[in-house]
Amino acid sequence: MQVTIRQLARTRRGNAISIRLFVVYLFGAALMSPCLADGPKKRHGAAFRAIFGDTLEREHNIGVLGYAHLTAAKSNHDIEKSQLPQGRGRGVQPQGGAVQDEGFNLQHLGLIVCKGAACPPGHMFEPNRNVLSRVTPLPGPRGDSVIVDWAVTAHYGEDAFFWTTKGFDDWAWKARDKNRFALTEWFLDIYLPIGAGASVLLGSFHSSLALEIGKALVPPNNFSSRSYAFVASPAKHVGLLTQFKLPLDPAWGHASVGFGLVGDWNSIDFGSGAGGPTFMFTGRWRSPDMRTWLDIETIYGNGEDDFGDSKVINGATFPLGGGSQYLALSSSNEYLDRFVGYFIATHAASPRLSLQFESVYGYQQGGELRPSPIAITRDSAFYGANGSFRYRLVDSVHVAARLEWFADENAANVLWSGVGATGGDVYAFTASVGWEPTPHLLVRPELKFDTYDGGGHLFAAGRNGLARKDSQFLGVLNLEFRF
Hints:
Elements: H1 5-9, H2 16-36, H3 46-52, H4 55-60, E1 62-75, E2 103-115, E3 131-132, E4 136-137, E5 147-157, E6 180-192, E7 198-206, H5 228-231, E8 236-245, E9 254-262, E10 278-286, E11 292-302, E12 309-313, E13 316-321, E14 337-348, E15 353-364, E16 380-394, E17 397-408, E18 424-438, E19 441-454, E20 459-461, E21 467-469, E22 471-482
């Protein structure tokens, strides 16, 4: 298999006409928003309610949520298209996270059809249980009945590539498309009246790992660009994830533990050879007033042969999606350990100010085969920490800032492949403003500065896909539409 950093990070050819049509439609939705607005907890679902009424929501707790992100990005390194592989686009990864290209792009247009607690928390319905899957234990007694909720999410746009599931929706016919379609989530969310309360998540779902999660909604993702800690984690899972509330005296807070059995990273299967399930463990504690949250989140499994598939078209290799960003391979299918763990603390200091801290440590055992220049052939560790805050100036305006440090000792992440085998440390500062002119439109200008200290050069891909800069400014203007 032929793999390159730019080919794994994104595909280039887009459908300009489709983007223009989406832009026209979404701006129309924003203009309609004053007549559709129905309170802060109903920012999403307004378009469906306006057309079909609210019977499904009111009588059956079923919501239809639409959202879209349009993003303009510009870095201080002007890289000509002729300098990039296949002459496609202008790159801003890895410091942009899911923001891949300079210029104006449709990051995603999404639709969620969901029931009850399976809908994004805080965006549609009040909790109907005392355990929210992937999120938190809640105050309150255990319910007396089984509750079965569910959700299906469809996603179209440039960053659908990151939410594609290997072996499920990584269709070869879309390999060259810049904007892709993916079924990012389809799961049952079941509440069980056992112990102090429990939940079971079964199907395909965005990962609960990391402070910033795959759900493309604000909050919880308070920044347009993603953190390096997020880039180090899986985007999604297929399998089973449980959570059990602990019988803790409410005066001591609220706590839960969770266990999961899932497939390979961003994949529907368990890999080949010495494969097997990947294991997840979570521990969560909330203060009695729910203002302070502490989370431990871990994942462990076999990192061998966890590549995303690709397709060769006219001599160029295009990734289909899914798979891991840590590539290791053994000729004897040896089990190659991979572990990632997070410690996260958040605190609502006041009704206006929230504080966040996140640390991460990861490890990938090396394999002896090297099918491409970016395969991991020695044991590699990656780790870091970041802190951020979000402050509400007035009802419709927030400001936020994030400071982060991340180290990849041996350049194990595929996005570090341009720096050589020695790896290094990256430091970043992000400042963001969020303005809601209506409940259905969020405007977020953001400025990010990254600097790298280590082997090679991390930023601004140059000729032959080799990185050539040690620092970069990135400006982003993100428009989030809720309909």
